[in-house]
Amino acid sequence: MSCVSVPKILMPKKGTDLYKWSVVACDQYTSQPEYWEETDRIVGDAPSTLRITLPEVFLETGDVAALTDEINTTMKQYLSDGVLTELPAGFILTERFSGGETPRRGLVAAIDLECYEYTAGSRSLVRPTEKTVVERIPPRLEIRKNASIEVPHIMLLIDDPDRTVIEPMFKKTAELEQVYNTDLMQDGGHINGWFIPEGALTDHLLSAMDALNDRETFNKKYRLTEDLPLLPFAVGDGNHSMATAKAYWEDVKKNLTPEEQATHPARFALCEIVNIHDESLIIEPIHRVMFHVNADDLLASAKEFYAANGSECEYFLSDSPTAYSLKQEENVHTVGICCGEKTGVLTVKNPKWGIPLGTLQAFLDAYLDQHTDAKIDYIHGTDVVNSLGRAEGNMGFFLPDIEKNDLFRGVIIDGVLPRKTFSMGEAHEKRYYMESKLIVR
Q1: Which are the contacts of 214, defined by CB distance < 8 A and separation ≥ 6?
Q2: Which run of H or E residues covers position 408?
Q3: Full-model pTM
Q4: Percentages of the chain per state (helix, strand, coil), in multiples of 5
Q5: pLDDT (tens digit, 9 = 90+) per residue, 415-438?
Protein backbone atom coordinates (compact mmCIF):
# COMPACT_ATOMS: atom_id res chain seq x y z
CA MET A 1 0.00 0.00 0.00
CA SER A 2 1.19 3.51 -0.74
CA CYS A 3 1.53 5.83 2.25
CA VAL A 4 0.96 8.95 0.15
CA SER A 5 -2.37 10.11 -1.24
CA VAL A 6 -3.29 13.01 -3.48
CA PRO A 7 -5.28 15.51 -1.36
CA LYS A 8 -7.72 18.30 -2.07
CA ILE A 9 -5.84 21.21 -0.57
CA LEU A 10 -7.47 24.36 0.78
CA MET A 11 -5.86 27.65 -0.20
CA PRO A 12 -6.88 31.24 0.56
CA LYS A 13 -8.89 32.81 -2.24
CA LYS A 14 -7.14 34.91 -4.85
CA GLY A 15 -6.46 38.43 -3.65
CA THR A 16 -5.70 37.39 -0.07
CA ASP A 17 -2.62 39.08 1.39
CA LEU A 18 -0.43 35.99 1.77
CA TYR A 19 2.17 37.95 3.75
CA LYS A 20 -0.41 38.32 6.51
CA TRP A 21 -1.98 34.92 5.89
CA SER A 22 1.17 32.84 6.48
CA VAL A 23 2.67 32.64 9.99
CA VAL A 24 5.36 30.42 11.46
CA ALA A 25 4.64 27.05 13.09
CA CYS A 26 2.89 27.37 16.45
CA ASP A 27 5.61 25.48 18.35
CA GLN A 28 8.22 28.18 17.71
CA TYR A 29 9.18 31.16 19.93
CA THR A 30 7.48 29.50 22.92
CA SER A 31 9.41 31.70 25.36
CA GLN A 32 8.97 34.90 23.37
CA PRO A 33 5.42 36.22 23.65
CA GLU A 34 6.63 39.48 22.12
CA TYR A 35 7.20 37.65 18.83
CA TRP A 36 3.55 36.64 18.72
CA GLU A 37 2.40 40.08 19.83
CA GLU A 38 4.24 41.55 16.85
CA THR A 39 2.74 38.89 14.58
CA ASP A 40 -0.71 39.86 15.83
CA ARG A 41 0.05 43.50 15.10
CA ILE A 42 1.17 42.68 11.54
CA VAL A 43 -1.91 40.56 10.84
CA GLY A 44 -4.47 42.99 12.23
CA ASP A 45 -7.93 42.18 10.88
CA ALA A 46 -6.71 40.37 7.75
CA PRO A 47 -7.46 36.68 7.17
CA SER A 48 -4.57 34.72 8.64
CA THR A 49 -3.50 31.30 9.81
CA LEU A 50 -2.74 33.06 13.09
CA ARG A 51 -6.51 32.97 13.71
CA ILE A 52 -6.88 29.23 13.06
CA THR A 53 -3.87 27.96 15.03
CA LEU A 54 -2.85 28.30 18.68
CA PRO A 55 0.73 29.45 19.34
CA GLU A 56 2.02 27.22 22.10
CA VAL A 57 3.31 30.21 24.03
CA PHE A 58 -0.32 30.60 25.14
CA LEU A 59 -0.85 27.01 26.31
CA GLU A 60 0.29 27.96 29.81
CA THR A 61 -0.76 31.61 30.00
CA GLY A 62 -3.95 31.91 27.94
CA ASP A 63 -7.56 30.77 28.30
CA VAL A 64 -7.06 27.76 26.05
CA ALA A 65 -10.73 26.76 26.00
CA ALA A 66 -11.84 30.23 24.88
CA LEU A 67 -9.02 30.47 22.34
CA THR A 68 -9.91 27.03 20.96
CA ASP A 69 -13.57 27.97 20.57
CA GLU A 70 -12.52 31.11 18.70
CA ILE A 71 -10.25 29.10 16.41
CA ASN A 72 -13.00 26.61 15.57
CA THR A 73 -15.46 29.42 14.87
CA THR A 74 -12.97 31.18 12.59
CA MET A 75 -12.29 27.96 10.68
CA LYS A 76 -15.98 27.57 9.92
CA GLN A 77 -16.24 31.24 8.99
CA TYR A 78 -13.30 31.01 6.57
CA LEU A 79 -14.98 28.04 4.89
CA SER A 80 -18.48 29.55 4.71
CA ASP A 81 -17.27 33.00 3.59
CA GLY A 82 -15.05 31.57 0.87
CA VAL A 83 -11.81 32.81 2.44
CA LEU A 84 -10.62 29.24 1.95
CA THR A 85 -11.29 27.49 -1.35
CA GLU A 86 -10.63 23.87 -2.20
CA LEU A 87 -8.33 23.09 -5.11
CA PRO A 88 -8.88 20.00 -7.26
CA ALA A 89 -6.96 16.94 -6.09
CA GLY A 90 -3.22 17.49 -6.45
CA PHE A 91 0.15 18.16 -4.84
CA ILE A 92 1.88 21.50 -4.33
CA LEU A 93 5.56 21.83 -5.24
CA THR A 94 7.10 24.34 -2.86
CA GLU A 95 10.34 26.31 -2.73
CA ARG A 96 11.35 28.20 0.42
CA PHE A 97 14.12 30.79 0.61
CA SER A 98 15.05 31.55 4.22
CA GLY A 99 18.49 33.13 4.06
CA GLY A 100 20.76 30.23 3.16
CA GLU A 101 22.60 29.69 -0.10
CA THR A 102 19.94 27.34 -1.47
CA PRO A 103 16.16 27.08 -1.09
CA ARG A 104 14.39 24.20 0.61
CA ARG A 105 12.35 22.27 -1.94
CA GLY A 106 9.41 20.12 -0.96
CA LEU A 107 6.16 18.51 -1.97
CA VAL A 108 2.92 19.15 -0.08
CA ALA A 109 0.94 15.92 -0.03
CA ALA A 110 -1.22 13.81 2.30
CA ILE A 111 0.05 10.87 4.31
CA ASP A 112 -2.13 7.93 5.32
CA LEU A 113 -2.15 7.80 9.12
CA GLU A 114 -2.74 4.04 8.95
CA CYS A 115 0.92 3.88 7.85
CA TYR A 116 2.14 5.82 10.90
CA GLU A 117 2.78 4.80 14.50
CA TYR A 118 4.58 6.84 17.14
CA THR A 119 4.79 4.18 19.85
CA ALA A 120 8.19 2.83 20.89
CA GLY A 121 9.30 -0.10 18.77
CA SER A 122 7.02 0.80 15.87
CA ARG A 123 7.63 -1.06 12.62
CA SER A 124 5.34 1.21 10.58
CA LEU A 125 6.26 2.68 7.20
CA VAL A 126 6.14 6.21 8.65
CA ARG A 127 7.92 6.72 11.97
CA PRO A 128 9.13 9.58 14.15
CA THR A 129 12.86 10.22 14.24
CA GLU A 130 12.78 10.99 17.96
CA LYS A 131 10.78 9.75 20.92
CA THR A 132 7.24 11.09 21.10
CA VAL A 133 6.36 12.65 24.46
CA VAL A 134 2.80 11.36 24.83
CA GLU A 135 2.03 13.94 27.53
CA ARG A 136 2.22 16.61 24.82
CA ILE A 137 -0.65 15.09 22.84
CA PRO A 138 -3.77 15.75 25.03
CA PRO A 139 -3.71 19.59 24.89
CA ARG A 140 -3.22 19.45 21.13
CA LEU A 141 -5.96 16.85 20.78
CA GLU A 142 -8.34 19.09 22.69
CA ILE A 143 -7.80 21.78 20.05
CA ARG A 144 -8.23 19.35 17.14
CA LYS A 145 -11.29 17.41 18.24
CA ASN A 146 -13.79 20.13 17.24
CA ALA A 147 -11.75 21.57 14.36
CA SER A 148 -13.03 21.40 10.79
CA ILE A 149 -9.65 21.79 9.08
CA GLU A 150 -6.00 21.09 9.79
CA VAL A 151 -3.23 23.61 9.16
CA PRO A 152 -0.12 21.49 9.57
CA HIS A 153 3.59 22.17 9.83
CA ILE A 154 4.67 18.54 9.54
CA MET A 155 7.84 17.83 7.56
CA LEU A 156 8.35 14.27 6.33
CA LEU A 157 11.81 13.25 5.20
CA ILE A 158 12.70 10.89 2.39
CA ASP A 159 16.22 9.54 1.86
CA ASP A 160 16.82 10.18 -1.85
CA PRO A 161 20.56 10.75 -2.40
CA ASP A 162 20.18 10.54 -6.19
CA ARG A 163 17.44 13.21 -6.14
CA THR A 164 14.93 11.22 -8.18
CA VAL A 165 11.65 12.44 -6.65
CA ILE A 166 11.27 16.14 -5.86
CA GLU A 167 14.16 17.88 -7.60
CA PRO A 168 13.26 16.87 -11.21
CA MET A 169 9.85 18.53 -10.79
CA PHE A 170 11.51 21.95 -10.78
CA LYS A 171 12.28 21.53 -14.47
CA LYS A 172 8.52 21.57 -15.06
CA THR A 173 7.46 24.68 -13.14
CA ALA A 174 6.83 26.61 -16.36
CA GLU A 175 4.07 24.10 -17.16
CA LEU A 176 2.44 24.40 -13.71
CA GLU A 177 0.09 26.98 -12.18
CA GLN A 178 1.83 29.08 -9.52
CA VAL A 179 -0.47 29.27 -6.50
CA TYR A 180 1.71 31.39 -4.25
CA ASN A 181 4.70 33.68 -4.53
CA THR A 182 5.15 35.80 -1.41
CA ASP A 183 7.51 37.15 1.19
CA LEU A 184 7.02 35.75 4.71
CA MET A 185 6.74 37.96 7.78
CA GLN A 186 9.18 38.14 10.69
CA ASP A 187 12.34 37.24 8.70
CA GLY A 188 10.73 34.15 7.19
CA GLY A 189 12.19 34.78 3.74
CA HIS A 190 10.23 34.02 0.55
CA ILE A 191 8.15 31.09 -0.64
CA ASN A 192 6.86 29.88 -4.02
CA GLY A 193 4.34 27.15 -4.74
CA TRP A 194 3.12 25.41 -7.91
CA PHE A 195 0.05 23.21 -8.20
CA ILE A 196 0.49 19.69 -9.64
CA PRO A 197 -2.97 18.38 -10.63
CA GLU A 198 -3.76 14.71 -10.12
CA GLY A 199 -2.68 12.81 -13.21
CA ALA A 200 0.50 11.71 -14.93
CA LEU A 201 2.85 13.82 -12.79
CA THR A 202 1.35 12.77 -9.46
CA ASP A 203 1.42 9.13 -10.61
CA HIS A 204 5.10 9.55 -11.50
CA LEU A 205 5.88 11.06 -8.10
CA LEU A 206 4.12 8.23 -6.27
CA SER A 207 6.06 5.65 -8.29
CA ALA A 208 9.36 7.44 -7.68
CA MET A 209 8.74 7.44 -3.92
CA ASP A 210 7.83 3.75 -3.96
CA ALA A 211 11.04 2.96 -5.85
CA LEU A 212 13.15 4.26 -2.95
CA ASN A 213 12.09 1.25 -0.92
CA ASP A 214 13.07 -1.61 -3.14
CA ARG A 215 14.29 -4.20 -0.61
CA GLU A 216 17.70 -4.80 -2.21
CA THR A 217 18.36 -1.07 -2.55
CA PHE A 218 17.16 -0.46 1.00
CA ASN A 219 19.43 -3.08 2.58
CA LYS A 220 22.46 -1.88 0.64
CA LYS A 221 21.84 1.78 1.44
CA TYR A 222 21.69 1.17 5.19
CA ARG A 223 24.30 -1.62 5.36
CA LEU A 224 21.78 -4.11 6.73
CA THR A 225 22.48 -7.81 7.10
CA GLU A 226 18.84 -8.72 7.80
CA ASP A 227 15.47 -7.63 6.42
CA LEU A 228 14.46 -4.95 8.93
CA PRO A 229 11.18 -3.07 8.37
CA LEU A 230 11.20 -0.63 5.46
CA LEU A 231 11.17 3.08 6.28
CA PRO A 232 9.99 5.23 3.35
CA PHE A 233 9.31 8.30 5.53
CA ALA A 234 10.70 9.70 8.77
CA VAL A 235 9.07 12.62 10.57
CA GLY A 236 11.68 15.37 10.64
CA ASP A 237 9.58 18.14 12.17
CA GLY A 238 6.10 18.47 13.63
CA ASN A 239 6.15 15.00 15.20
CA HIS A 240 3.71 15.90 17.98
CA SER A 241 1.33 17.47 15.47
CA MET A 242 1.37 14.22 13.51
CA ALA A 243 0.94 12.16 16.67
CA THR A 244 -2.09 14.29 17.54
CA ALA A 245 -3.55 13.73 14.07
CA LYS A 246 -3.05 9.98 14.60
CA ALA A 247 -4.70 10.03 18.02
CA TYR A 248 -7.64 11.99 16.60
CA TRP A 249 -8.03 9.55 13.69
CA GLU A 250 -7.97 6.56 16.03
CA ASP A 251 -10.85 8.13 17.95
CA VAL A 252 -12.85 9.10 14.85
CA LYS A 253 -12.60 5.75 13.10
CA LYS A 254 -14.20 3.88 16.01
CA ASN A 255 -17.61 5.07 14.78
CA LEU A 256 -17.02 4.44 11.06
CA THR A 257 -17.65 1.45 8.84
CA PRO A 258 -14.62 0.04 6.97
CA GLU A 259 -15.94 1.69 3.81
CA GLU A 260 -16.21 5.06 5.55
CA GLN A 261 -12.75 4.68 7.08
CA ALA A 262 -11.18 4.20 3.65
CA THR A 263 -11.94 7.73 2.48
CA HIS A 264 -12.54 9.79 5.62
CA PRO A 265 -10.51 13.04 5.44
CA ALA A 266 -9.25 12.69 9.03
CA ARG A 267 -7.36 9.56 7.96
CA PHE A 268 -4.93 11.64 5.90
CA ALA A 269 -2.58 14.28 7.32
CA LEU A 270 -1.22 17.11 5.19
CA CYS A 271 2.57 17.47 5.26
CA GLU A 272 5.58 18.70 3.31
CA ILE A 273 7.80 15.91 1.99
CA VAL A 274 11.47 16.96 1.80
CA ASN A 275 14.55 15.09 0.67
CA ILE A 276 16.95 14.81 3.59
CA HIS A 277 19.74 15.42 1.05
CA ASP A 278 18.31 18.83 0.12
CA GLU A 279 21.27 21.22 0.39
CA SER A 280 19.28 23.64 2.52
CA LEU A 281 18.84 21.14 5.35
CA ILE A 282 21.72 21.64 7.75
CA ILE A 283 21.61 18.88 10.34
CA GLU A 284 23.76 19.52 13.38
CA PRO A 285 24.42 17.21 16.32
CA ILE A 286 23.29 18.21 19.79
CA HIS A 287 26.07 17.60 22.30
CA ARG A 288 25.81 16.53 25.96
CA VAL A 289 27.17 17.75 29.30
CA MET A 290 26.88 15.70 32.48
CA PHE A 291 26.75 17.55 35.80
CA HIS A 292 27.60 16.37 39.34
CA VAL A 293 29.63 13.37 38.19
CA ASN A 294 33.02 11.87 38.93
CA ALA A 295 34.80 11.39 35.61
CA ASP A 296 36.75 8.29 36.70
CA ASP A 297 33.61 6.62 38.01
CA LEU A 298 31.62 7.54 34.92
CA LEU A 299 34.22 6.17 32.52
CA ALA A 300 34.64 2.96 34.53
CA SER A 301 30.86 2.55 34.47
CA ALA A 302 30.91 3.03 30.70
CA LYS A 303 33.34 0.12 30.26
CA GLU A 304 31.11 -2.12 32.40
CA PHE A 305 27.92 -1.05 30.60
CA TYR A 306 29.23 -1.68 27.11
CA ALA A 307 30.83 -4.99 28.08
CA ALA A 308 27.45 -6.11 29.41
CA ASN A 309 25.94 -5.21 26.03
CA GLY A 310 28.43 -7.18 23.96
CA SER A 311 30.63 -4.21 23.05
CA GLU A 312 34.14 -3.10 23.97
CA CYS A 313 34.76 0.39 25.34
CA GLU A 314 38.07 2.24 25.39
CA TYR A 315 38.82 5.83 26.32
CA PHE A 316 41.78 8.14 26.15
CA LEU A 317 42.33 11.44 27.97
CA SER A 318 45.27 13.80 27.60
CA ASP A 319 46.39 17.17 28.92
CA SER A 320 46.83 18.22 25.30
CA PRO A 321 44.08 20.59 24.04
CA THR A 322 44.25 18.86 20.64
CA ALA A 323 40.85 18.11 19.15
CA TYR A 324 40.86 14.39 18.39
CA SER A 325 39.32 13.02 15.22
CA LEU A 326 35.74 11.83 15.53
CA LYS A 327 35.74 10.15 12.14
CA GLN A 328 33.71 6.95 12.39
CA GLU A 329 34.97 3.55 11.29
CA GLU A 330 33.03 0.41 10.42
CA ASN A 331 31.59 -1.11 13.62
CA VAL A 332 33.21 1.58 15.78
CA HIS A 333 31.52 4.60 17.35
CA THR A 334 33.63 7.46 18.71
CA VAL A 335 32.67 10.57 20.71
CA GLY A 336 34.83 13.33 22.12
CA ILE A 337 35.10 13.92 25.87
CA CYS A 338 36.44 16.65 28.11
CA CYS A 339 36.74 17.15 31.86
CA GLY A 340 38.92 19.58 33.77
CA GLU A 341 42.04 20.20 31.71
CA LYS A 342 41.81 16.92 29.85
CA THR A 343 40.50 16.19 26.36
CA GLY A 344 40.10 12.86 24.61
CA VAL A 345 37.83 10.30 23.02
CA LEU A 346 35.57 7.45 24.08
CA THR A 347 35.40 4.58 21.58
CA VAL A 348 32.92 1.71 21.47
CA LYS A 349 33.69 -1.28 19.25
CA ASN A 350 30.94 -3.51 17.85
CA PRO A 351 28.11 -1.32 19.11
CA LYS A 352 24.59 -2.70 18.90
CA TRP A 353 23.18 0.79 18.32
CA GLY A 354 22.83 2.38 14.88
CA ILE A 355 24.59 5.73 15.37
CA PRO A 356 27.17 7.15 17.84
CA LEU A 357 24.59 9.19 19.74
CA GLY A 358 22.41 6.14 20.25
CA THR A 359 25.45 4.32 21.64
CA LEU A 360 26.34 7.21 23.99
CA GLN A 361 22.83 8.02 25.16
CA ALA A 362 22.01 4.41 26.04
CA PHE A 363 24.87 4.50 28.55
CA LEU A 364 24.13 7.99 29.87
CA ASP A 365 20.49 7.05 30.50
CA ALA A 366 21.57 3.94 32.40
CA TYR A 367 24.10 5.97 34.41
CA LEU A 368 21.51 8.61 35.29
CA ASP A 369 19.15 5.90 36.51
CA GLN A 370 21.81 4.72 38.96
CA HIS A 371 23.11 8.17 39.98
CA THR A 372 20.17 10.35 40.95
CA ASP A 373 22.36 13.36 41.78
CA ALA A 374 23.75 13.49 38.25
CA LYS A 375 22.08 15.71 35.64
CA ILE A 376 22.32 16.07 31.86
CA ASP A 377 21.93 19.02 29.51
CA TYR A 378 21.71 19.15 25.71
CA ILE A 379 24.03 21.69 24.16
CA HIS A 380 24.28 23.41 20.76
CA GLY A 381 27.84 24.41 19.98
CA THR A 382 31.19 22.91 20.98
CA ASP A 383 32.38 26.09 22.67
CA VAL A 384 29.62 25.80 25.28
CA VAL A 385 30.44 22.12 25.85
CA ASN A 386 34.09 23.08 26.39
CA SER A 387 33.10 25.75 28.91
CA LEU A 388 30.59 23.72 30.89
CA GLY A 389 32.19 20.30 30.54
CA ARG A 390 35.49 21.42 32.04
CA ALA A 391 33.94 22.85 35.22
CA GLU A 392 34.54 20.86 38.41
CA GLY A 393 32.21 17.89 38.71
CA ASN A 394 31.16 18.04 35.06
CA MET A 395 32.00 16.15 31.89
CA GLY A 396 31.38 17.12 28.27
CA PHE A 397 30.62 14.85 25.31
CA PHE A 398 31.15 15.98 21.72
CA LEU A 399 29.07 14.21 19.08
CA PRO A 400 30.41 13.73 15.54
CA ASP A 401 28.71 15.32 12.57
CA ILE A 402 25.62 13.42 11.51
CA GLU A 403 25.61 11.75 8.12
CA LYS A 404 22.19 12.40 6.64
CA ASN A 405 21.30 8.82 5.80
CA ASP A 406 22.51 7.78 9.27
CA LEU A 407 19.37 9.42 10.65
CA PHE A 408 17.31 6.84 8.80
CA ARG A 409 19.74 4.08 9.73
CA GLY A 410 19.43 5.01 13.40
CA VAL A 411 15.64 4.80 13.30
CA ILE A 412 15.73 1.53 11.31
CA ILE A 413 18.12 -0.19 13.72
CA ASP A 414 17.31 1.43 17.08
CA GLY A 415 13.58 1.99 16.54
CA VAL A 416 13.79 5.68 17.43
CA LEU A 417 16.61 8.15 17.93
CA PRO A 418 17.35 9.50 21.40
CA ARG A 419 15.75 12.75 22.44
CA LYS A 420 17.67 15.82 21.25
CA THR A 421 19.66 13.97 18.60
CA PHE A 422 19.89 16.79 16.07
CA SER A 423 18.74 20.28 15.20
CA MET A 424 17.49 21.20 11.77
CA GLY A 425 17.31 24.92 11.10
CA GLU A 426 16.63 28.01 13.16
CA ALA A 427 13.16 29.05 14.35
CA HIS A 428 12.59 31.48 11.47
CA GLU A 429 13.41 28.70 8.99
CA LYS A 430 10.66 26.40 10.25
CA ARG A 431 7.61 25.79 8.12
CA TYR A 432 5.15 28.67 7.77
CA TYR A 433 1.47 27.77 7.54
CA MET A 434 0.05 28.15 4.05
CA GLU A 435 -2.02 25.15 2.94
CA SER A 436 -4.83 23.46 4.87
CA LYS A 437 -7.21 20.52 4.45
CA LEU A 438 -10.62 19.42 5.66
CA ILE A 439 -10.64 16.78 8.40
CA VAL A 440 -14.45 16.44 8.63
CA ARG A 441 -16.96 15.34 6.04
Answers
A1: none
A2: helix 404-414
A3: 0.85
A4: 35, 25, 35
A5: 878 778 888 888 899 999 999 999
